[in-house]
Amino acid sequence: MIVRPMTESDIPILIQMGLRAHLESEYRNMRFSPEKCERLGQAMNSLSNLQCFVVERNEEIIAFLMASVEEGYFTNEKTASDLLVYVKPEWRGGRAFYMLVFEYIEWAKEQDVKLIFLSNSTGYEPAKVGRLYEHLGFHQVGGIFQMEVKDV
Question: Looking at the 3D structure of the chain, how many domains does it have?
């Protein structure tokens, strides 16, 4: 297995994986837009504050992590945040996730960030994911609460 930055040719595969992630998430009741995902993939390749890493095994992408670096709204110091982490179900529980997170941390440090965030806004197995994040050295600083708006 290798970790590498995504390339433009990866975008169609990542869109399909993104759809799978979408269907597993709390966002599944919202419309999925492949066109918007394609634009995001192109931005990942062209903007220095965005990055997407993929894990490849035998030339197949099995996992990815998208992240951004931004200045805080109240400071000039920067933070790194993940946008989406997805590992194909058949590869969960293995090394792919760890490889992505370690690459993300190294990239974030190279961007001179003060804080690195790793979230689980999709609602996927929150207790299990929380323990995994803590095992990697992260600690919980809050929570995400959701309210669905009907008839929109």
Answer: 1
Which two tokens mark 126?
Answer: 């929150």
pLDDT, mean of residues 121-149: 86
What tokens were used for 33? 């837009």
- Find out whether 54 and 64 touch, Cβ atoms under 8 Å: yes
Task: Record the tokens describing residue 44, joined without a space.
Answer: 């990942």
How far is the C-alpha of 85 from the C-alpha of 63, rounded, in Å? 8
The reply to whether 143 falls in a domain is: no
pLDDT tens-place string over residues 31-85: 999 999 999 999 998 999 999 999 999 999 999 999 999 999 999 999 999 999 9
Task: Look at residue 125 and tell me if it is in a domain.
Answer: yes
| Inside any domain, residue 131 | yes
- Whichever domain contains 108, its CATH number is 3.40.630.30
What pLDDT does residue 129 have? Answer: 85
